[in-house]
TrEMBL record:
It comes from the Eukaryota. It comes from Monascus purpureus. InterPro entries: ACOT8-like_C, Acyl-CoA_hotdog, HotDog_dom_sf, Sec_Metab_Biosynth-Assoc, TesB_ACOT8-like_N. Pfam families: 4HBT_3, 4HBT_3C. Residues 195-332 form the Acyl-CoA thioesterase-like C-terminal domain. This is Thioesterase domain-containing protein.
């Protein structure tokens, strides 16, 4: 049985999707889930996760009578910068099948332009003024159809996760929650107010920076709790997982250090922005009905070249089972490209 987000009203409000027609929907992308002036990529992906579930319940309620569908594969291209405010979500039924169905999804918003118009509001932009911001494919399957061969390979985390004080060297998550640290693991202090606002919805614990050797320079690991809007009793749910695969503040700090070391002094910047170009997520396992408190992420990048980087993420639960794997292509650019004033054709900017 899949998880629910009913225990996190702030997250439910942030990813709410409203039907307009059989294949078009509306959403309100929220400022508090932005990086600078741009909605966070994982948050936008969570909205699309909710979109496909809403679409089948609204337009194809009898297709899978046994159980609601859940996304198992997500492939998105972030074509242009999104913005906080109203968005039109469009669905095309590419394939409707007995075990899997595939949808093409698009997030559209007002076109950005250099000229401001004194009348009109961005939230009421006409369809003619919209342009595609995010597009891609999402494949879904009802959990009851997920049957067939299963087995384990020899895959394991390498290098192993840094140990904690728990049995067999496992991290003592109760100690992390109560004291903020366990062995080399400690609560991360990252900027979530002035720029990375989307990071305020997560509590992250990572190994202290001086605890890892040079062989771990390209690897970041974290244990995280979900706290949307400060809701400490919230739990990680299926929609929240696709937000988590794109939320790794310590990894971004490390990318910034690597990027700065490869730049000439005349081009160095104090702060980077890492916009997602493409994002692929495979959901390996649905979470329990009421979610889980803790999830582990291992993040690694191979190389930054010409302002572009790869980012790979694996998410595990407390038992070490894989929940999701993700990979993305991202840019490494100055944050000044994000925080400047933005204008929209036929609409007023409210950021």
């Amino acid at each position: 049985m899949t998880s629910t987000t009913s225990n996190a009203p702030a997250f439910e409000e942030a990813i709410a999707v409203t039907p307009l027609t059989s294949h078009t929907y509306s959403a309100d992308l929220q400022d508090s889930w932005c990086i600078g002036t741009v909605p966070h990529g994982g948050y936008t992906t969570a909205v699309l996760y909710r979109l496909v579930k809403t679409h089948f319940a609204h337009t194809h309620p009898t297709l899978y009578k046994s159980a609601p569908v859940v996304p198992i594969s997500i492939q998105l291209s972030f074509l242009r910068r999104t913005a906080a405010g109203k968005a039109v979500l469009t669905v095309q039924d590419v394939k409707l099948g007995a075990r899997t169905s595939t949808l093409h999804v698009t997030v559209s918003q007002a076109r950005e332009g250099k000229k401001k118009h004194p009348q009109g509001d961005r939230d009421s932009a006409t369809e003619e003024a919209l342009e595609a911001k995010v597009a891609g494919y999402i494949t879904v399957s009802p959990p009851t159809a997920e049957v067939g061969a299963s087995g384990s390979t020899s895959w394991t985390l390498h290098p192993p996760s840094l140990p904690g004080s728990g049995p067999n060297g496992r991290v003592n998550l109760s100690a992390l929650a109560a004291e903020g640290r366990d062995g080399v693991w400690e609560r991360s202090q990252h900027d979530s107010k002035s720029f990375r606002w989307a990071g305020q919805h997560i509590e992250v614990f990572s190994p202290a920076k001086d605890s890892a050797g040079p062989e771990r320079r390209a690897i970041v690991e974290q244990w995280a709790r979900f706290q949307p809007g400060g809701e400490r009793k919230a739990r990680w749910t299926d929609e929240a997982v696709v937000y988590l695969v794109d939320m790794f503040p310590e990894a971004l700090d490390e990318l910034g250090r690597v990027a700065s070391s490869g730049m000439s002094s005349s081009h160095k910047t104090e702060f980077f922005w890492y916009p997602t170009v493409t994002l692929t997520v495979e959901v390996k396992k649905q979470l329990p009905l009421h979610g889980v408190e803790w999830l582990y992420s291992r993040i690694h990048s191979k190389v930054i070249r010409n302002g572009r980087t790869d980012i790979n993420v694996v998410v595990l639960d407390e038992e070490g089972e894989i929940i999701a794997v993700a990979s993305q292509v991202g840019l490494v650019v100055s944050a000044s490209r994000n925080i400047g004033q933005r204008t929209f054709k036929g609409a007023k900017e409210r950021l």
